[in-house]
Design a protein that fits this description.
Layout (H helix, E strand, L loop, with lengths): L6 H23 L4 H13 L13 H21 L2 H4 L4 H25 L5 H10 L9 H5 L5 H30 L5 H36 L4 H21 L4 H14 L10 H28 L3 H11 L1 H10 L7 H9 L5 H13 L2 H38 L23 H8 L1
Helix pairs in contact: 1-2, 2-12, 3-8, 3-10, 3-11, 3-12, 3-16, 5-6, 5-8, 5-13, 5-14, 6-8, 6-17, 8-9, 8-11, 8-16, 9-10, 9-11, 10-11, 10-12, 12-17, 13-14, 13-17, 14-15, 15-17, 16-17
Length: 432
C-alpha cells in the first residue's frame, strides 16, 4: 500500500527522538545538550555514509515547521513574562533589552560591514539583528543550577524570552530594505512597517479577548482544566495565522498576543501555558534536527574566513561589550557582568530568521546571510552547550562568596520563561 507520507523519513526522525529519550540523562551529564544531540543526529542521518534523508534548505516544509515553532515559542515566552510581575524587578531586563540589545545589533552590523567589504548596509544590518537574540534553552543547566543567584537566572530568562520578539520587527524591516529595489527602498520599508503595526493590533486583540474568554469560561465552569491548555495552544496559532492572513507579521502577532494574554492571566493560571511550552520544545528539537540535516552543509559551502571571524566576534565582543555597557552602574560584580555577557547563546530565532532571509534575498546575499548565521549558531550550540554547566558551577561559587547585600542576591519574584525539558517537572511542581 502506497502512502503520500514519507514513512521512511518519519521513521528516521522518530527513531532519533527515541534514541535521545533513551540516553538523554547520560549525555546531559557529559554536557551534551538536546540541541547539540539533534543537530549532530540530523547531520549524520542526512549525509554520507548514511544518507537516510533528503533534506533541502529550500524546502517549504522546513521553513513552515520553523516558522510555526518560532510563533509558539514567541507566544509562550511572552505570556510567561507577566508585565505586572515584571515591574517588581524591571531595572536589569530594561537595561539589557533597551540598551544592550540595540547596541548588540549595531555592533553586529558594524562588524559585518567591516568584514564583508562592499556588502549592502541593509544586509549587514540584517546579519547583525539576526544573531542578536539569545536562547536560554541552549544552556538549560544554568537555569536549573541553584548555585547561580535566582535574580541572575531570572534576568537571563527574561532577556531570552523577550529579545527575539523585540528583534522581529527589525528583521522584517531590514529584509524589506535589502530585498527591495534601490529606487523602492522607502516603499519596501514602509510596507514592512504597516505589516508590523497590523501584527501588533491583531495580536493585542486576540491575546486580550482569548485571555478574557478563558477566564470567563473557567469562572462559569464551562472549560475542563485538562483542556484549557489546548485552548492556549490554539490561541497562539490563531494569533500567528490570522495575522498572516490579514497581511501582517505573524511573529509580531504571536509575540504581542502572548504579552497581552500573560498580562491579564493570573499567576496561578500560568500552568495553562504548559502544553504550548511542551509543543514548542518538541518542535524546537525537530527544527534543530532539520538544521543539522538541511542547513549546515549548504551554508558551509559558502562560508569564508570572514564568516568564521564574525561568528567568533558575535559570541564574544559583539555580545559582551554591549552587555557591559548596559549593566554599567548597576552595582553588579564584574564576574556577574561577564557571566551574563557570555551566556548569550544564539538559537531558534536566529535559525528561523536566517531561513526567511535566505528565501527573501538574491542568492549572493542570501547565501552570505545563511553561511554567517549558521556558523554563529553552530559555534554557539557547541560552545554554550558544553560550557553552560561548568561555568555555572564556577560562577555559583564566586556568587556565594559575594556579600548578601549586593544586587545579585536581591529578592527576585518567581518568573519563568522557557528552559529545556530538564526542569519541566520541577517547574510544574512549583506552579502547582
Amino acid at each position: 500500500m502506497e502512502h503520500g507520507l514519507d514513512t521512511g523519513a518519519l521513521a528516521v526522525v522518530a527513531g532519533c527522538f527515541v534514541l535521545w529519550g533513551l540516553v538523554s540523562g547520560r549525555l546531559e551529564r557529559l554536557n551534551v545538550s538536546a540541541p547539540i544531540a539533534f543537530v549532530v543526529l540530523g547531520l549524520v542521518v542526512a549525509h554520507e555514509p548514511l544518507s537516510l534523508l533528503d533534506a533541502q534548505v529550500h524546502s517549504s516544509t522546513l521553513r513552515s515547521i520553523a516558522e510555526i515553532t518560532l510563533a509558539l515559542v514567541l507566544f509562550s515566552d511572552a505570556s510567561r513574562v507577566n508585565v505586572r510581575a515584571l515591574r517588581a524587578d524591571v531595572a536589569l531586563p530594561v537595561r539589557l533589552l533597551g540598551i544592550g540589545l540595540p547596541l548588540t545589533i549595531a555592533a553586529g552590523a558594524a562588524c559585518a560591514a567591516a568584514l564583508f567589504g562592499g556588502v549592502d548596509l541593509w544586509v549587514a544590518a540584517l546579519i547583525g539583528v539576526i544573531v542578536a537574540p539569545t536562547d536560554a534553552a541552549l544552556g538549560a543547566s544554568i537555569m536549573e543550577d541553584e548555585r547561580v543567584p535566582a535574580r541572575v537566572r531570572r534576568v537571563l530568562n527574561v532577556e531570552s524570552g523577550l529579545n527575539d520578539g523585540i528583534a522581529t520587527p527589525f528583521v522584517n524591516l531590514f529584509i524589506a530594505g535589502a530585498a527591495a529595489e534601490e529606487v523602492a527602498h522607502a516603499q519596501g520599508v514602509g510596507g514592512a512597517a504597516v505589516d508590523l503595526l497590523t501584527g501588533v493590533g491583531v495580536g493585542l486583540g486576540i491575546g486580550l479577548v482569548g485571555a478574557a474568554l478563558l477566564r470567563a469560561t473557567q469562572r462559569w465552569g464551562w472549560s475542563a482544566p485538562a483542556f484549557r491548555q489546548f485552548a492556549v495552544l490554539g490561541l497562539a496559532l490563531v494569533a500567528y495565522a490570522v495575522t498572516v492572513q490579514v497581511g501582517g507579521n505573524g511573529f509580531v502577532g504571536a509575540f504581542v498576543g502572548g504579552l497581552a494574554f500573560g498580562s491579564i492571566t493570573p499567576a496561578a493560571d500560568e500552568g495553562v501555558v504548559g502544553f504550548t511550552d511542551d509543543a514548542g520544545e518538541l518542535l524546537s528539537l525537530l527544527v534543530w534536527f532539520l538544521f543539522g540535516a538541511a542547513m549546515i552543509v549548504p551554508a558551509f559551502e559558502h562560508l569564508v574566513w570572514q564568516g568564521v571571524v564574525f561568528a567568533l566576534l558575535a559570541l564574544t565582543v559583539v555580545r559582551m561589550v554591549p552587555v557591559g555597557i548596559a549593566l554599567a552602574g548597576a552595582g553588579l560584580d564584574r564576574a556577574t557582568v561577564a557571566f551574563i555577557g557570555w551566556f548569550g547563546p544564539r538559537g531558534l530565532a536566529s535559525v528561523v530568521f536566517a531561513l526567511i532571509a535566505f528565501d527573501s534575498l538574491d542568492p549572493p546575499d542570501g547565501n552570505r546571510v545563511l553561511a554567517v548565521v549558521t556558523a554563529t549558531v553552530v559555534l554557539s550550540v557547541v560552545a554554550h552547550g558544553i560550557s553552560a554547566a561548568p561555568i555555572a558551577a564556577q560562577y555559583g561559587q564566586r556568587a556565594a562568596a559575594l556579600q548578601s547585600d549586593l544586587p545579585e542576591h536581591a529578592a527576585a519574584p518567581a518568573l519563568r520563561t522557557r528552559s529545556m525539558a530538564g526542569d519541566r517537572a520541577r517547574s510544574r511542581a512549583t506552579l502547582q
